[in-house]
Amino acid sequence: MGTIVCKHCNDTIDHFEDEKVSVLYSQCGSCPEDVTEE
Asked: Record's superkingdom (predicted)?
């Protein structure tokens, strides 16, 4: 079981089936594109 998490607001976006447990970071639709990384 894997989880996709927003790299800006840390909201869970989606879950996916995988052989190992993992977390992938992406960007959700509600965060602006120009958010700078701290």
From this structure: Bacteria
Residues linked to residue 26 through DSSP beta bridges, in sequence order: 6
Query: Is 22 a member of any domain?
Result: yes
pLDDT confidence of residue 34: 63
Cα 32–Cα 25–Cα 12 angle in degrees, nearest 5: 80
User: Is the residue at 36 inside a domain?
Assistant: no
SS3 per-residue string spanning the chain? CEEEEECCCCCEEEEECCCCCEEEEECCCCCCCCCCCC
User: Which domain range does residue 9 map to?
Assistant: 1-29
- The answer to whether position 12 is within a domain reads yes
